[in-house]
Amino acid sequence: MTYNPANDGAQMDFNGRMSYGEYLHIDEILAQQHPLSTAHDEMLFIIQHQTSELWMKLLLHELGSARGAIAQDNLPVAFKMMARASRILEQLNNAWDVLRTMTPSDYTKFRDTLGQSSGFQSLQYRMIEFALGNRNAAMIKPHAHLADASAILETEMQTPSLYTEVLRYATRQGFNLPDAALDVQTTPHEAIPEITAMWQKIYADTGNHWTLYELAEKLVDIEDYFRRWRFNHLTTVQRIIGFKRGTGGTSGVHYLQRMLGVELFPELWNVRTEL
Questions:
Q1: 43-109+117-274 is a CATH 1.20.58.480 domain
Q2: Of the four listed, 131, 139, 166, 186, which is most buried by Cβ atoms within 10 Å?
Q3: What pTM value is reported for the model?
């Protein structure tokens, strides 16, 4: 007998009712892939980057909410969001495995159609870096042709980063830190000895500082996955284009290698040596 889901109560008639596709606007999403060549792998390239942008949108949503929760001393909520942020970064890392199935020969067939467009120009990626504290006003320039994008980045530059909110929380728990550590940063965060000393006290006495200890490990998780994302980007680019310049004009692999050296929360890495 042919199975009929309606016999088990499944809704089969969606006339006048919201369906799965309508709720998610699936038709609109699936209509946004527009290859500019006949190359088979261009569809992979487009979907890889579009889905990454969707994951980045969710990552920004979680990081922003975690930052707000920390500012309100609501650490249990922040922990959940930070854990989710790590899982999102894991998804972004896994996506490189699919893109790496594209060979240099495959990419060459459509690379010229990209013009000067490049992931270097991703507004959401820049927002993630700014939210995590890697702030550089020069990186706003690629978005200057879009007034709204520039305004979003300028606003983020004047907002405490996730790490700054963590350090402010630590002071509310009785730790003394220099004002420079608590001010809104408009340049990349650099290690401050007093912050390293604070984390050393926390790691040396986790029983009395468990919440801050857990918060520190959540930050390390996020940076760990973020570093892997950068490394996977580097190895994927080198595997596909070698040492050619990027489509956006960057030095390609050499630029990505420099980015690998950036530490978002340097004191949390330095303290490992001190313990």
A1: yes
A2: 166
A3: 0.93
